[in-house]
Amino acid sequence: VLSELDMTFAQDIQPWIGQYLGVGVVDFQVGQYGDLETVDFVVSVEARSKKGADAFLEKLSTQITENAGIAIISTEYRGVTLFEPVAADEGDALAFARTGDLLLFSNQSRTLKKALDDLKDSTLAADPAYKRLVGELPEGRILGIYISGDRIAELLYASSQSLDGMGLAESYQFLDGMAMSVSIIDEGIQVDALTA
Predict the structure, then answer these.
(1) What are 11-50's pLDDT values in tens digits?
(2) Which ranges of the chain have pLDDT less than 50?
(3) 167 vs 159: CA distance, rounded Å
(4) In this structure, what are the phi and psi dihedrals at residue 42, rounded to the nearest 5 degrees?
(5) CA distances from 146 to 101, 125, 160, 193 (A)
(6) Distance between CA atoms of 94 and 87, rounded to whole angstroms?
(7) Are strands 95-99 and 80-85 parallel, antiparallel or unpaired?
């Protein structure tokens, strides 16, 4: 993808990128048979150089416009410069922004704005189920996943599956959340999963 945009990792990303990356699934639609039809996501990338990250976003915007033919405009949203496609129906065009030490990328402008709202107004760390579950996962993990109980219920309600006449969502309605992690240990890879 970078080569199509006349960019390289060494020149355009390595000078600013930090050590942390996060992926959040904000909304999804599941088909009648449990297949994933659409998914709205946010990817967050730590920036160790704000100046370098800003230069990257400016260049990315220009390159998408020039090489992919998708017009990207910059607007202000809650004090943050937001880069987004001109038309709402630009397909696979990314919306992106930097807030503090984070670069955010999303496949939907509205999803990126929601992520910015959440960063300004609330935090996942305030969720008691998240704090409890993630606190019990191994500290040296290379990957951590958390799904709130509400999201689990939404996914299960969307599926048409049932268990002895009871929908899966009703079977698991007591869940406050689920956390999983992947760690590298001497013996190989360790996967942990917890529910509350």
Answers:
(1) 999 999 998 888 888 777 777 776 777 888 999 999 999 9
(2) 89, 160, 162-163
(3) 9
(4) -130, 130
(5) 22, 11, 24, 10
(6) 12
(7) antiparallel
User: What's the token pair of residue 88?
Assistant: 């709402």
181 contact partners, CB below 8 Å, separation of at least 6: 137, 138, 141, 143, 144, 145, 191, 192
Strands 143-148 and 177-185: antiparallel
CA of 95: how far to CAs of 86, 113, 131, in Å? 10, 9, 30
Give residue 167's pLDDT.
Answer: 59
Calpha distance 178→196 (Å, rounded) = 7
Closest CA to 44 of 64, 67, 11, 20: 20
Q: Is the four-CA dihedral 67, 68, 69, 74 of positive or negative sign?
A: negative
Which residues lie across from 29 on neighbouring strands?
A: 38
DSSP state of 3: G
Give the separation between CA 135 and CA 122, rounded to whole angstroms. 19
Q: How far is CA 114 from CA 59, 65, 95, in A?
A: 24, 24, 12
